[in-house]
Amino acid sequence: MLSRLSPSHYLDADVFAREQTHVFRKLWLFAAFRTALSEPNAFATRELGGLPVLLQNCEGEIRAFENLCPHRQMPLQKEAFGQARMVCPYHGWVFDPEGQVKTIPHEQRLYAYPPEERAGLCLKRYAVRVVGELVFVNLDKNPLPFDEQFTPELQQALADITSHFGAQAIHADLPARYNWKLNYENVLDYNHVPYIHPKTFQPLLREGISDARQGQPAAEAAPAQDGAELPPPPTAGLAAQSFWTRSPIRIEAWPWHGLVERYGEGDLYYNFFLYPNVNFISLGGLTFLLQQFHPVAPDRTEVRFTLCAAREKRRLAGLPAILWGHLKSEVAVLHEDLGHLEALQAALHRDAPRANHGIYEDRLTAVADTYLGLMGEERS
């Protein structure tokens, strides 16, 4: 079965620009953990859909604005995370929780805006949706209904698992030289694990990660094995492209495991696929890692890591070291993928043949159909 996508979907600047407009500025995008925004005036800054976005705790409510002062387009907040009022560092303009200009130093003497112009001086505001401890932003002026992208059942599962998040989280960004879609396709492809991760990830799997259709017609499903929950079969439609699974996994016991309120029923690997560009996983309900494949250019992706542990029963002085140790392991696994995906991207050219998918890759076909629909393209 030939891939729905041609090499140009991974190479062309024009395609990339249309993705920003039709995919990333239309869909709900993960933006931050709510724990990073729990304090008054706490903020986080992100680039989403090619736009600078500011998430700010405004009197207890998380709001999202374009991170540009309407005066001279200076970012209000320049750090990735912090705690500060919404004040432009360039000329001291102060903004209220609604994003309206509250005060302008020496306003009458230096600016003398007419009343109607003064009333329009405000930050562009974006829609926000919080699911458990995950904060999503939509950049469109008429946001897609959230349930059309993520089913209520998936939202409940996310709320349940993220309710166990601890307060501390760590972050890292890793640049990669490949198209963002290759990384999302890669996390959907369980069949690469024995070949790319034979010494890191594969030994942890007790039953292997399977979509239960290998060697079977797509309409059939094999029974779950030893606690594994299988995903629904792939179908068309936006909401169908986001789902979750769980599979048995080997987890080495550490003393700190008994000091946190873990999620779930033991040694299971929880794997959430959140279209268009997020893979959220948990090892045994003890650690939680969210990877976001942020598009930078047709052949450039920034892989954003956010990791936390389950909520502490009592304070763990060594928790930062525990988290950094886990993140180091996760980055090592990604580096194994990265080398192969960068080689794949480098070898692509406009006249290259399309990929030949096997029956187990029907999820890639479903995702590609959804992508083409968002892009306004015919299936080919």
What does this structure look like?
The chain is of the alpha+beta class. It has two domains: 1-24 and 166-380, Alpha-Beta Complex (Naphthalene 1,2-dioxygenase Alpha Subunit, Chain A, domain 1), CATH 3.90.380; 28-143, Rieske Iron-sulfur Protein. 25% of the residues lie in helices and 26% in strands. The chain has helices at 8-11, 13-24, 107-110, 115-119, 146-149, 152-162, 180-188, 193-196, 319-347, 362-375, and strands at 28-33, 42-48, 51-58, 61-66, 81-83, 94-95, 101-103, 125-131, 134-138, 165-176, 243-248, 268-274, 278-283, 287-297, 300-310. Strand 13 (278-283) and strand 14 (287-297) form a beta hairpin. It is globular and about 70 Å long. It starts with 7 loop residues before the first helix and ends in a 5-residue tail after the last helix. The model is unreliable at 212-225 (pLDDT under 50).
